[in-house]
Protein backbone atom coordinates (compact mmCIF):
# COMPACT_ATOMS: atom_id res chain seq x y z
CA UNK A 1 0.00 0.00 0.00
CA UNK A 2 1.33 3.40 -1.00
CA UNK A 3 0.32 6.58 0.87
CA UNK A 4 -1.86 7.71 -2.10
CA UNK A 5 -3.75 4.41 -1.99
CA UNK A 6 -4.36 4.75 1.76
CA UNK A 7 -5.64 8.29 1.28
CA UNK A 8 -7.94 7.18 -1.55
CA UNK A 9 -9.46 4.47 0.66
CA UNK A 10 -10.53 6.93 3.40
CA UNK A 11 -13.98 8.54 3.72
CA UNK A 12 -14.21 12.08 2.28
CA UNK A 13 -14.51 13.62 5.77
CA UNK A 14 -11.44 11.70 6.93
CA UNK A 15 -9.55 12.85 3.83
CA UNK A 16 -10.41 16.47 4.70
CA UNK A 17 -9.07 16.02 8.23
CA UNK A 18 -5.94 14.22 7.05
CA UNK A 19 -5.18 16.82 4.35
CA UNK A 20 -5.45 19.63 6.89
CA UNK A 21 -3.41 17.69 9.46
CA UNK A 22 -0.70 16.94 6.87
CA UNK A 23 -0.51 20.66 6.03
CA UNK A 24 0.06 21.35 9.73
CA UNK A 25 2.81 18.73 9.89
CA UNK A 26 4.52 20.19 6.80
CA UNK A 27 4.44 23.64 8.40
CA UNK A 28 5.49 22.40 11.86
CA UNK A 29 6.65 18.77 12.21
CA UNK A 30 6.25 18.95 16.01
CA UNK A 31 2.47 19.31 15.54
CA UNK A 32 2.32 15.57 14.88
CA UNK A 33 2.57 14.87 18.63
CA UNK A 34 -0.95 16.24 19.16
CA UNK A 35 -2.45 15.22 15.81
CA UNK A 36 -1.33 11.59 15.90
CA UNK A 37 -3.46 10.50 18.92
CA UNK A 38 -6.46 12.50 17.59
CA UNK A 39 -6.54 10.70 14.24
CA UNK A 40 -8.82 7.88 15.41
CA UNK A 41 -11.40 10.29 16.87
CA UNK A 42 -11.33 12.30 13.62
CA UNK A 43 -11.19 9.50 11.03
CA UNK A 44 -12.78 6.47 12.72
CA UNK A 45 -11.39 3.01 13.45
CA UNK A 46 -13.19 0.82 10.92
CA UNK A 47 -11.50 -1.38 8.29
CA UNK A 48 -10.84 0.29 4.93
CA UNK A 49 -8.63 -1.82 2.66
CA UNK A 50 -6.14 -4.71 2.71
CA UNK A 51 -6.25 -5.11 6.48
CA UNK A 52 -5.76 -1.38 7.18
CA UNK A 53 -8.12 0.55 9.46
CA UNK A 54 -9.01 4.21 8.95
CA UNK A 55 -7.01 5.38 11.99
CA UNK A 56 -3.93 3.40 10.93
CA UNK A 57 -4.10 4.87 7.44
CA UNK A 58 -4.57 8.42 8.71
CA UNK A 59 -1.62 8.01 11.09
CA UNK A 60 0.58 6.53 8.34
CA UNK A 61 -0.23 9.56 6.15
CA UNK A 62 0.78 11.93 8.96
CA UNK A 63 4.10 10.10 9.29
CA UNK A 64 4.59 10.23 5.53
CA UNK A 65 4.15 14.03 5.70
CA UNK A 66 7.20 14.45 7.98
CA UNK A 67 10.35 15.93 6.45
CA UNK A 68 12.92 13.15 5.85
CA UNK A 69 15.33 14.41 8.51
CA UNK A 70 12.62 14.31 11.21
CA UNK A 71 11.08 10.91 10.45
CA UNK A 72 13.33 8.74 12.59
CA UNK A 73 13.13 10.90 15.72
CA UNK A 74 9.36 11.50 15.53
CA UNK A 75 8.62 7.82 14.78
CA UNK A 76 10.63 6.85 17.80
CA UNK A 77 8.86 9.33 20.08
CA UNK A 78 5.35 8.58 18.78
CA UNK A 79 5.92 4.88 19.32
CA UNK A 80 7.41 5.47 22.78
CA UNK A 81 4.41 7.50 23.92
CA UNK A 82 1.80 5.73 21.81
CA UNK A 83 -1.16 3.75 23.07
CA UNK A 84 -1.48 0.28 21.56
CA UNK A 85 -3.34 1.53 18.45
CA UNK A 86 -0.80 4.27 17.82
CA UNK A 87 2.09 1.82 18.25
CA UNK A 88 0.43 -0.52 15.79
CA UNK A 89 -0.02 2.31 13.28
CA UNK A 90 3.67 3.23 13.56
CA UNK A 91 4.70 -0.39 12.97
CA UNK A 92 2.45 -0.72 9.93
CA UNK A 93 3.70 2.56 8.46
CA UNK A 94 7.42 1.66 8.71
CA UNK A 95 7.72 0.16 5.20
CA UNK A 96 6.29 3.40 3.73
CA UNK A 97 8.84 5.69 5.39
CA UNK A 98 12.36 6.80 4.38
CA UNK A 99 13.82 5.43 7.56
CA UNK A 100 16.24 2.65 6.53
CA UNK A 101 16.67 0.21 9.40
CA UNK A 102 16.18 2.85 12.13
CA UNK A 103 12.79 1.29 13.01
CA UNK A 104 14.22 -2.10 13.92
CA UNK A 105 14.33 -1.40 17.70
CA UNK A 106 10.57 -0.76 17.54
CA UNK A 107 10.02 -4.21 16.03
CA UNK A 108 12.07 -5.73 18.84
CA UNK A 109 9.93 -3.88 21.39
CA UNK A 110 6.69 -5.00 19.74
CA UNK A 111 7.80 -8.62 19.54
CA UNK A 112 8.66 -8.59 23.26
CA UNK A 113 5.08 -7.63 24.17
CA UNK A 114 2.27 -10.06 24.77
CA UNK A 115 -0.14 -7.98 22.71
CA UNK A 116 -1.11 -9.88 19.56
CA UNK A 117 -1.92 -6.67 17.70
CA UNK A 118 1.67 -5.46 18.14
CA UNK A 119 3.39 -8.79 17.52
CA UNK A 120 1.31 -9.21 14.34
CA UNK A 121 2.09 -5.71 13.09
CA UNK A 122 5.83 -6.32 13.58
CA UNK A 123 5.87 -9.14 11.03
CA UNK A 124 4.85 -7.17 7.93
CA UNK A 125 7.12 -6.11 5.06
CA UNK A 126 9.43 -4.12 7.36
CA UNK A 127 10.40 -7.38 9.12
CA UNK A 128 12.79 -7.84 6.18
CA UNK A 129 15.16 -5.79 8.39
CA UNK A 130 15.02 -8.38 11.20
CA UNK A 131 17.88 -10.82 11.56
CA UNK A 132 16.99 -14.49 10.99
CA UNK A 133 17.13 -15.55 14.66
CA UNK A 134 14.76 -12.78 15.82
CA UNK A 135 12.43 -13.40 12.91
CA UNK A 136 12.20 -17.15 13.63
CA UNK A 137 11.46 -16.51 17.32
CA UNK A 138 8.75 -14.05 16.32
CA UNK A 139 7.14 -16.54 13.92
CA UNK A 140 7.18 -19.20 16.63
CA UNK A 141 5.64 -16.70 19.05
CA UNK A 142 2.80 -16.16 16.56
CA UNK A 143 2.11 -19.90 16.66
CA UNK A 144 2.15 -19.82 20.49
CA UNK A 145 -0.22 -16.85 20.59
CA UNK A 146 -2.60 -18.33 18.04
CA UNK A 147 -1.94 -15.63 15.45
CA UNK A 148 -2.61 -16.65 11.85
CA UNK A 149 0.66 -17.09 9.94
CA UNK A 150 -0.90 -15.28 6.97
CA UNK A 151 0.16 -12.03 8.69
CA UNK A 152 3.83 -12.93 8.27
CA UNK A 153 5.31 -11.28 5.19
CA UNK A 154 7.30 -13.62 2.86
CA UNK A 155 6.78 -16.56 5.23
CA UNK A 156 7.69 -19.41 2.89
CA UNK A 157 10.58 -17.48 1.37
CA UNK A 158 12.27 -16.92 4.75
CA UNK A 159 11.27 -20.11 6.57
CA UNK A 160 14.37 -22.30 6.85
CA UNK A 161 15.64 -25.56 8.30
CA UNK A 162 16.20 -23.96 11.70
CA UNK A 163 12.54 -22.85 11.84
CA UNK A 164 11.51 -26.37 10.82
CA UNK A 165 13.42 -27.80 13.79
CA UNK A 166 11.77 -25.29 16.14
CA UNK A 167 8.28 -26.03 14.78
CA UNK A 168 8.86 -29.77 14.94
CA UNK A 169 9.87 -29.40 18.60
CA UNK A 170 6.72 -27.46 19.34
CA UNK A 171 4.58 -30.00 17.48
CA UNK A 172 6.07 -32.75 19.60
CA UNK A 173 5.39 -30.90 22.86
CA UNK A 174 1.84 -30.17 21.76
CA UNK A 175 1.28 -33.80 20.84
CA UNK A 176 2.59 -34.90 24.25
CA UNK A 177 0.17 -32.48 25.93
CA UNK A 178 -2.71 -33.68 23.78
CA UNK A 179 -3.17 -30.21 22.28
CA UNK A 180 -3.22 -29.64 18.55
CA UNK A 181 -0.97 -27.16 16.79
CA UNK A 182 -2.76 -24.67 14.52
CA UNK A 183 -3.39 -25.99 10.99
CA UNK A 184 -1.39 -23.24 9.31
CA UNK A 185 1.66 -24.00 11.48
CA UNK A 186 1.33 -27.72 10.80
CA UNK A 187 1.05 -26.91 7.09
CA UNK A 188 4.24 -24.86 7.22
CA UNK A 189 6.02 -27.65 9.08
CA UNK A 190 4.96 -30.14 6.40
CA UNK A 191 6.11 -27.86 3.59
CA UNK A 192 9.48 -27.37 5.29
CA UNK A 193 9.83 -31.11 5.96
CA UNK A 194 9.03 -31.81 2.30
CA UNK A 195 11.77 -29.40 1.22
CA UNK A 196 14.22 -31.06 3.59
CA UNK A 197 13.36 -34.53 2.19
CA UNK A 198 13.77 -33.34 -1.41
CA UNK A 199 17.18 -31.93 -0.51
CA UNK A 200 18.25 -35.31 0.95
CA UNK A 201 17.05 -37.23 -2.10
CA UNK B 1 -27.52 -6.14 34.68
CA UNK B 2 -24.82 -3.98 33.09
CA UNK B 3 -22.19 -2.43 35.32
CA UNK B 4 -19.66 0.32 34.62
CA UNK B 5 -17.09 0.46 37.45
CA UNK B 6 -15.98 4.11 37.39
CA UNK B 7 -12.90 3.58 39.58
CA UNK B 8 -10.88 0.37 39.80
CA UNK B 9 -7.12 -0.31 39.69
CA UNK B 10 -6.95 -3.36 37.44
CA UNK B 11 -3.15 -3.24 37.23
CA UNK B 12 -3.23 -4.70 40.74
CA UNK B 13 -5.78 -7.39 39.91
CA UNK B 14 -5.52 -10.77 38.24
CA UNK B 15 -6.95 -11.93 34.94
CA UNK B 16 -9.27 -14.16 36.98
CA UNK B 17 -10.79 -10.96 38.39
CA UNK B 18 -11.59 -9.77 34.86
CA UNK B 19 -13.31 -13.09 34.28
CA UNK B 20 -15.37 -12.86 37.48
CA UNK B 21 -16.23 -9.21 36.82
CA UNK B 22 -17.44 -10.01 33.30
CA UNK B 23 -19.59 -12.84 34.73
CA UNK B 24 -21.06 -10.39 37.29
CA UNK B 25 -22.08 -7.94 34.57
CA UNK B 26 -19.14 -5.50 34.42
CA UNK B 27 -18.92 -4.31 30.80
CA UNK B 28 -16.83 -1.15 31.16
CA UNK B 29 -14.52 0.43 33.68
CA UNK B 30 -12.23 3.36 34.34
CA UNK B 31 -8.79 2.77 35.83
CA UNK B 32 -7.36 5.90 37.45
CA UNK B 33 -3.61 6.33 37.70
CA UNK B 34 -2.62 6.13 41.34
CA UNK B 35 0.26 5.03 43.51
CA UNK B 36 1.28 1.40 43.52
CA UNK B 37 2.15 0.90 47.18
CA UNK B 38 5.88 1.19 46.50
CA UNK B 39 6.86 4.84 45.95
CA UNK B 40 8.35 5.56 42.51
CA UNK B 41 11.53 7.57 42.20
CA UNK B 42 11.65 8.61 38.55
CA UNK B 43 9.47 9.96 35.76
CA UNK B 44 10.23 6.89 33.64
CA UNK B 45 8.47 4.62 36.16
CA UNK B 46 5.36 6.71 35.66
CA UNK B 47 5.49 6.68 31.88
CA UNK B 48 5.83 2.89 31.87
CA UNK B 49 2.80 2.74 34.19
CA UNK B 50 0.79 5.14 32.02
CA UNK B 51 1.76 3.06 28.96
CA UNK B 52 0.24 -0.01 30.53
CA UNK B 53 -2.97 1.95 31.30
CA UNK B 54 -3.35 2.76 27.58
CA UNK B 55 -1.77 -0.43 26.24
CA UNK B 56 -1.64 -3.70 28.10
CA UNK B 57 -4.63 -3.23 30.47
CA UNK B 58 -7.14 -2.36 27.71
CA UNK B 59 -5.89 -5.42 25.85
CA UNK B 60 -6.29 -7.66 28.90
CA UNK B 61 -9.76 -6.27 29.62
CA UNK B 62 -10.74 -6.79 26.00
CA UNK B 63 -10.25 -10.54 26.36
CA UNK B 64 -13.35 -10.56 28.56
CA UNK B 65 -15.43 -8.09 26.58
CA UNK B 66 -14.74 -5.34 29.12
CA UNK B 67 -14.05 -1.85 27.76
CA UNK B 68 -11.14 -0.30 29.64
CA UNK B 69 -10.57 3.45 30.00
CA UNK B 70 -8.08 5.34 32.12
CA UNK B 71 -7.58 8.60 33.93
CA UNK B 72 -4.02 9.95 34.00
CA UNK B 73 -2.36 12.18 36.60
CA UNK B 74 0.40 12.60 39.12
CA UNK B 75 -1.24 11.34 42.31
CA UNK B 76 -1.19 13.51 45.46
CA UNK B 77 1.00 11.18 47.52
CA UNK B 78 3.86 11.12 44.99
CA UNK B 79 3.38 14.80 44.12
CA UNK B 80 5.34 15.37 47.35
CA UNK B 81 8.50 13.76 45.94
CA UNK B 82 10.58 16.30 43.96
CA UNK B 83 11.98 13.43 41.85
CA UNK B 84 8.47 12.89 40.44
CA UNK B 85 7.63 16.54 39.70
CA UNK B 86 8.62 16.08 36.02
CA UNK B 87 5.58 13.82 35.59
CA UNK B 88 3.49 16.98 35.13
CA UNK B 89 5.44 17.72 31.92
CA UNK B 90 4.64 14.37 30.24
CA UNK B 91 0.92 14.40 31.10
CA UNK B 92 -0.21 16.33 27.98
CA UNK B 93 0.93 13.45 25.72
CA UNK B 94 -1.20 10.99 27.66
CA UNK B 95 -4.25 13.22 28.12
CA UNK B 96 -4.68 13.17 24.31
CA UNK B 97 -5.06 9.36 24.18
CA UNK B 98 -8.34 7.85 23.01
CA UNK B 99 -8.78 5.80 26.18
CA UNK B 100 -8.03 8.63 28.62
CA UNK B 101 -11.37 10.02 29.76
CA UNK B 102 -10.36 12.26 32.69
CA UNK B 103 -7.49 13.77 34.65
CA UNK B 104 -7.06 11.82 37.88
CA UNK B 105 -6.62 10.83 40.60
CA UNK B 106 -5.69 14.30 41.76
CA UNK B 107 -6.44 16.04 45.06
CA UNK B 108 -5.02 15.82 48.56
CA UNK B 109 -3.24 13.23 50.63
CA UNK B 110 -1.51 15.23 53.40
CA UNK B 111 -2.56 18.72 52.21
CA UNK B 112 0.97 20.03 51.62
CA UNK B 113 2.10 22.98 49.47
CA UNK B 114 3.41 20.51 46.84
CA UNK B 115 -0.03 18.89 46.70
CA UNK B 116 -1.63 22.33 46.31
CA UNK B 117 0.60 23.00 43.32
CA UNK B 118 0.05 19.64 41.60
CA UNK B 119 -3.72 19.79 42.21
CA UNK B 120 -4.14 23.29 40.72
CA UNK B 121 -1.80 22.56 37.79
CA UNK B 122 -3.73 19.41 36.91
CA UNK B 123 -7.15 21.05 37.15
CA UNK B 124 -5.75 23.56 34.63
CA UNK B 125 -4.68 20.65 32.41
CA UNK B 126 -8.21 19.22 32.60
CA UNK B 127 -9.59 22.52 31.33
CA UNK B 128 -6.97 22.78 28.58
CA UNK B 129 -7.53 19.21 27.34
CA UNK B 130 -11.32 19.44 27.75
CA UNK B 131 -11.43 16.54 30.19
CA UNK B 132 -13.36 15.95 33.41
CA UNK B 133 -11.41 15.46 36.63
CA UNK B 134 -11.42 12.66 39.22
CA UNK B 135 -10.55 14.01 42.64
CA UNK B 136 -9.51 11.78 45.51
CA UNK B 137 -10.29 12.89 49.08
CA UNK B 138 -7.78 12.16 51.85
CA UNK B 139 -8.25 9.24 54.22
CA UNK B 140 -6.97 11.29 57.17
CA UNK B 141 -8.65 14.57 58.10
CA UNK B 142 -11.27 13.76 55.46
CA UNK B 143 -13.91 16.36 56.32
CA UNK B 144 -11.54 19.32 56.21
CA UNK B 145 -9.74 17.83 53.21
CA UNK B 146 -13.03 17.62 51.34
CA UNK B 147 -13.90 21.22 52.21
CA UNK B 148 -10.54 22.41 50.93
CA UNK B 149 -10.97 20.26 47.80
CA UNK B 150 -14.29 21.93 46.98
CA UNK B 151 -12.66 25.35 47.38
CA UNK B 152 -9.75 24.54 45.08
CA UNK B 153 -12.12 23.13 42.45
CA UNK B 154 -14.17 26.34 42.59
CA UNK B 155 -11.05 28.53 42.29
CA UNK B 156 -9.74 26.56 39.29
CA UNK B 157 -12.59 27.66 37.05
CA UNK B 158 -13.46 24.10 35.97
CA UNK B 159 -17.20 23.55 35.72
CA UNK B 160 -18.16 21.66 38.95
CA UNK B 161 -20.30 19.21 36.95
CA UNK B 162 -17.10 18.04 35.25
CA UNK B 163 -15.59 16.98 38.59
CA UNK B 164 -16.20 13.87 40.67
CA UNK B 165 -15.08 14.05 44.29
CA UNK B 166 -14.44 10.47 45.35
CA UNK B 167 -14.23 8.28 48.47
CA UNK B 168 -17.05 10.18 50.19
CA UNK B 169 -19.04 9.08 53.23
CA UNK B 170 -22.08 10.20 55.26
CA UNK B 171 -20.15 13.17 56.62
CA UNK B 172 -18.77 14.56 53.36
CA UNK B 173 -21.49 13.83 50.77
CA UNK B 174 -23.74 16.85 51.33
CA UNK B 175 -21.08 19.51 50.79
CA UNK B 176 -19.94 17.89 47.53
CA UNK B 177 -23.48 17.58 46.18
CA UNK B 178 -24.19 21.19 47.13
CA UNK B 179 -21.07 22.32 45.24
CA UNK B 180 -22.49 20.93 41.99
CA UNK B 181 -19.85 18.22 41.61
CA UNK B 182 -20.50 14.51 41.31
CA UNK B 183 -20.33 12.40 44.47
CA UNK B 184 -18.14 9.29 44.30
CA UNK B 185 -18.31 6.38 46.73
CA UNK B 186 -15.82 3.53 47.05
CA UNK B 187 -17.27 0.34 48.46
CA UNK B 188 -14.68 -1.51 50.52
CA UNK B 189 -14.88 -4.73 52.52
CA UNK B 190 -13.87 -3.06 55.83
CA UNK B 191 -13.21 0.64 55.46
CA UNK B 192 -14.54 3.62 53.52
CA UNK B 193 -18.09 2.50 52.67
CA UNK B 194 -20.11 -0.73 52.87
CA UNK B 195 -23.02 -1.80 50.61
CA UNK B 196 -25.68 -1.27 53.34
CA UNK B 197 -24.36 2.21 54.18
CA UNK B 198 -24.26 3.03 50.45
CA UNK B 199 -27.88 2.03 49.98
CA UNK B 200 -28.86 4.27 52.90
CA UNK B 201 -27.00 7.21 51.33
CA UNK B 202 -28.76 6.61 48.00
CA UNK B 203 -32.11 6.63 49.82
CA UNK B 204 -31.27 9.90 51.52
CA UNK B 205 -29.45 11.78 48.75
CA UNK B 206 -30.98 10.20 45.64
CA UNK B 207 -29.43 8.52 42.62
CA UNK B 208 -28.54 11.61 40.56
CA UNK B 209 -24.91 12.70 40.11
CA UNK B 210 -23.64 9.69 42.08
CA UNK B 211 -20.85 7.30 41.06
CA UNK B 212 -20.42 4.04 42.97
CA UNK B 213 -17.16 2.15 42.51
CA UNK B 214 -15.20 -0.75 43.96
CA UNK B 215 -11.87 1.16 43.92
CA UNK B 216 -10.39 -2.33 44.07
CA UNK B 217 -6.59 -2.21 44.16
CA UNK B 218 -3.68 -4.01 45.81
CA UNK B 219 -5.21 -3.55 49.26
CA UNK B 220 -8.02 -5.52 50.86
CA UNK B 221 -10.73 -4.82 48.33
CA UNK B 222 -13.22 -6.62 46.11
CA UNK B 223 -14.01 -5.91 42.44
CA UNK B 224 -17.46 -7.48 42.82
CA UNK B 225 -18.70 -5.05 45.48
CA UNK B 226 -20.32 -2.99 42.71
CA UNK B 227 -22.54 -5.96 41.89
CA UNK B 228 -23.18 -6.69 45.58
CA UNK B 229 -24.28 -3.08 46.13
CA UNK B 230 -26.52 -3.23 43.05
CA UNK B 231 -28.15 -6.43 44.34
CA UNK B 232 -28.71 -4.84 47.74
CA UNK B 233 -30.30 -1.80 46.05
CA UNK B 234 -32.81 -4.13 44.38
CA UNK B 235 -33.45 -5.98 47.63
CA UNK B 236 -34.04 -2.64 49.34
CA UNK B 237 -36.77 -1.51 46.98
CA UNK B 238 -34.85 0.33 44.25
CA UNK B 239 -35.97 -0.46 40.70
CA UNK B 240 -33.94 -1.99 37.86
CA UNK B 241 -33.94 1.46 36.30
CA UNK B 242 -32.45 3.03 39.47
CA UNK B 243 -29.69 0.42 39.42
CA UNK B 244 -29.03 1.02 35.73
CA UNK B 245 -28.83 4.76 36.38
CA UNK B 246 -26.30 4.41 39.20
CA UNK B 247 -24.18 1.64 37.69
CA UNK B 248 -24.30 2.48 34.01
CA UNK B 249 -25.91 5.73 32.86
CA UNK B 250 -24.29 7.90 35.55
CA UNK B 251 -20.70 6.87 34.78
CA UNK B 252 -21.46 7.09 31.05
CA UNK B 253 -22.81 10.62 31.54
CA UNK B 254 -19.88 11.72 33.70
CA UNK B 255 -16.98 10.31 31.65
CA UNK B 256 -18.90 10.95 28.42
CA UNK B 257 -18.08 14.61 29.04
CA UNK B 258 -14.60 13.77 27.70
CA UNK B 259 -16.12 13.20 24.26
CA UNK B 260 -14.00 10.04 24.14
CA UNK B 261 -16.10 7.32 25.74
CA UNK B 262 -16.42 4.52 23.21
CA UNK B 263 -18.91 1.83 24.21
CA UNK B 264 -19.82 0.55 20.75
CA UNK B 265 -19.98 -3.18 20.11
CA UNK B 266 -18.83 -4.36 23.52
CA UNK B 267 -18.73 -8.12 23.12
CA UNK B 268 -16.80 -10.89 24.81
CA UNK B 269 -13.82 -12.54 23.15
CA UNK B 270 -11.92 -9.66 21.60
CA UNK B 271 -9.70 -11.13 18.98
CA UNK B 272 -7.10 -10.37 16.43
CA UNK B 273 -8.21 -11.34 12.94
CA UNK B 274 -10.49 -14.00 14.32
CA UNK B 275 -8.04 -15.61 16.72
CA UNK B 276 -8.82 -15.61 20.39
CA UNK B 277 -5.83 -14.73 22.50
CA UNK B 278 -6.91 -15.87 25.93
CA UNK B 279 -3.76 -17.91 26.34
CA UNK B 280 -0.88 -15.85 27.62
CA UNK B 281 2.67 -16.70 28.49
CA UNK B 282 4.54 -16.75 25.22
ZN1 LIG C 1 -8.10 4.90 43.57
UniProtKB/TrEMBL annotation, chain A:
Q: Which domain of life is it from?
A: Bacteria
Q: Which InterPro entries match?
A: EboA_dom (IPR047715)
Q: What is this protein called?
A: Sugar phosphate isomerase
TrEMBL record, chain B:
The protein in question is named Hydrolase TatD
> What are this entry's molecular-function GO terms?
hydrolase activity, acting on ester bonds; metal ion binding
State the PANTHER family in the record: HYDROLASE TATD
Q: Write out the similarity annotation.
A: Belongs to the metallo-dependent hydrolases superfamily.
Q: Does the keyword Signal apply?
A: no
Pfam families on file: TatD_DNase
Q: Which InterPro entries does this UniProt record tie to the protein?
A: Metal_Hydrolase (IPR032466), TatD-like (IPR001130), UCP005295 (IPR012022)
Metal-binding in keyword set: yes
Which key words are in the record? Hydrolase, Metal-binding
